[in-house]
């Protein structure tokens, strides 16, 4: 189930990193701050997710082994953790690309790239859910878009009414 780990981590990497970008942009922070916060999130959350995946897979194996019920050979928890980390970091880098290369309208371009990537990952999800790929892609796009909208609104409201 390494593909499951990859899809889950890619989705989370896109959404959480873009949430940092959207929140920072909503708060009118400079591009340099967007990059600092984005990369800090990218690696800290990537490590957090990969260690969580590793420990979860290891715990499941240890539990099944102790119970001897339904025990089956599993892939290495280390492989699960590594796939999670690399998938998170690669997908999570996508929202930062326009800021790294200082493109004009970096936030708009970031939004477009993230929307396309969310749709693609959602479509790939249909492999597991056996749902129609278009529906699965749109579902992932809507959920991720909602998370980004919330992050943008929080950044905007804090900058406007609290700071």
Description:
This protein is an all-alpha fold. It has one domain. 83% of the residues lie in helices and 0% in strands. The protein contains six helices and no strands. It has helices spanning 2-26, 31-67, 77-93, 97-100, 106-129, 133-161. Helix 1 runs antiparallel to helix 2 (31-67) and helix 1 runs antiparallel to helix 5 (106-129). The model has no long low-confidence stretch (mean pLDDT 90).
Short key terms for the protein model shown above:
single chain; mainly alpha; 0% strand
In short:
By secondary structure, the protein is an all-alpha fold.
Low-confidence stretches: none
Give the tally of β-strands. 0
Helix content: over 70%
Mean pLDDT: 90
Give a short account of the largest sheet.
Answer: none
How many separate domains make up the residues?
A: 1
Write the layout of secondary structure elements.
Layout: H1 2-26, H2 31-67, H3 77-93, H4 97-100, H5 106-129, H6 133-161
